[in-house]
TrEMBL record:
NCBIfam families the UniProt entry points to: SCO0930_lipo (NF040526)
Source organism (scientific name): Streptomyces fuscichromogenes
Superkingdom, natural source: Bacteria
Signal sequence annotation: 1-22
Protein's name in the database: Lipoprotein
Taxonomy of the source species: Bacteria, Bacillati, Actinomycetota, Actinomycetes, Kitasatosporales
């Protein structure tokens, strides 16, 4: 597969250790539509499609927000049955005639796509299928360009968000991005990557992100113990504190969290390594040691 391309300010401390949501699917196919009723592509058509170079980019949909599309503007989908870490597709045979696997050959990442999230799996027939954030991508045989008829189909199929998550479905307050480059890193409720600033001071939390810094970096809102547990984190690593301007900011193992305004869509990690001091926050954090452990993903690469 070919992939294109402060002044220190003290914060007053409220030492507080941290003490969900499927939305209705969008437009779906007619009730009479079943996997077996959709005409299949013949072998020559399938082979021709698989041989063609593929470009994937992000389109803004009025109902589903950001969705992934192919070079023809057709919406791409993920399956709730596919698991990112499995390296397998749950859709073969008749299913694959309706939800057509996207070939992984000669893929070009377009606008809004983080190329680091693109990958592939090997299907049972030996062909390579494109993945995004570890999730296999498919097109829906009944869709035309710009349509999302497959959204919510069989309560399994959903348009792909730019990080491989399900578009049109409410996100939790705290999420996890499976990045092949950075590993598992934390996201906020909008799917934006959470970062830490190595110039900050943990315990007691002090933020070095001054007014100029805040033009590019936004303090992350507090989350709950339940939010942490939902992504496999101990609530003990949550510390909410009050910033100099009086707002509440969440920190993870005492490291204040931020989002980067340069990340325009879920799954982007444009803030990683900025200035050699900004790093995505690991989703796998040991029990709190009051900041002695710096949960910075990929820091050793800089």
């Amino acid at each position: 597969m070919k992939i294109a391309a402060g002044a220190l300010v003290l914060a007053s401390l409220l030492s507080a250790c941290g003490s969900t949501q499927a939305a209705q699917p969008g437009s779906a196919p007619k009730a009479s539509t079943t996997l077996n009723s959709v005409p299949s592509l013949n072998v020559s058509e399938r082979n021709a499609e698989a041989a063609a170079p593929t470009a994937v980019s992000v389109r803004v949909d009025g109902n589903l927000k950001s969705v992934v599309v192919d070079e023809n503007g057709k919406t791409l989908y993920v399956s709730a049955k596919d698991k990112a870490a499995s390296g397998k597709s749950s859709c073969d045979d008749t299913c694959a005639k309706t939800m057509v696997p996207v070939p992984a050959d000669d893929v070009t990442p377009g606008t809004g796509i983080n190329k680091d999230l693109l990958g592939s799996i090997t299907r049972v027939d030996g062909s390579k299928q494109l993945t995004l954030g570890g999730k296999p991508l498919y097109s829906y045989a009944e869709d035309e360009a710009g349509e999302t008829k497959g959204q919510g189909f069989q309560k399994t199929w959903y348009a792909a968000a730019p990080d491989g998550a399900k578009a049109g479905v409410s996100r939790p307050a705290l999420g996890v991005l499976d990045s092949p480059k950075l590993g598992r890193v934390l996201q906020d409720k909008n799917g934006h990557t959470l970062y830490l600033f190595t110039k900050d001071t943990p315990w007691p939390m002090q933020t070095a992100c001054d007014a100029t810094c805040l033009q590019k970096w936004t303090p992350s809102a507090p989350v709950t113990a339940a939010d942490a547990k939902a992504v496999g984190l101990s609530p003990e690593i949550l510390f909410t504190f009050t910033t100099p301007n009086g707002t509440k900011q969440e920190s993870f193992n005492c490291w204040p969290a931020y989002t980067f305004k340069g990340d325009k869509a879920p799954g982007q990690t444009n803030g990683q390594g900025v200035g050699g001091v900004w790093f995505a926050i690991k989703a796998d954090i040991p029990k709190s040691d009051r900041g002695k452990t710096v949960p910075a993903a990929g820091r050793d690469q800089y």
